[in-house]
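Hi team,

As requested, here is the filled-out complex form for the iron/sulfur cluster run. I kept the field names the same as last time so the parser does not choke. Let me know if anything looks off before we queue the next batch.

— J.
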Amino acid sequence: MSDPVSRLVATAQGDAVDNPFRVTGVMMQYYYVCERELWFESRNIEINRENASVARGTRVDESSYGERSQENLRLGMIALDLLEDGRVVEVKPSSTLTEPARMQLSYYLWYLDRVLGVEREGVLAHPTERRREGVSLDDDRCDKVESAIRGIHAIVTADSPPEATEKPYCESCAYHDFCWV
Ligand code: SF4
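And here is what came back:
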């Protein structure tokens, strides 16, 4: 079995797989933020990560959803922020980097559907901005998630990181000095 998508599903379902493959929601998010950052992340290289992520607005502000932010639900490779009326809610402090957050949520919906056989709608919530956006797993999103899984596999199995390409958030990235000094 060589296709990373098939390997991921088999791994998640507990089948015997020669070369298990796992993708977390954070990996999906980083794939859309910066492929080089994903590679560093896959090697467990961490430098002052908390501050950098908060500065970029990619981490959940635990206080903005009050008590409910503690209702984190772990399901194999994924961890949902919370379920609300049967919908999967992904909470982000701001609407910067919306597409990475949208793809993280899309991956959760895909994982629920393909691995667990559960169809769900999603909501991307920005509590500090009082904004919410519905996310559905239509065919296009599904194709995008599976294409991203294959892309993530190519990156994390590479011997070296992708070349650095300048982005608006490089200054606040934990790996800045690995890329630009
Ligand atoms: S500094 Fe920029 S290019 Fe380097 S890992 Fe961070 S976001 Fe990516």
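Two things worth flagging: The chain has seven helices and six strands. The helical segments are 4-12, 25-33, 35-42, 49-56, 98-116, 139-156, 176-180.

Thanks,
J.
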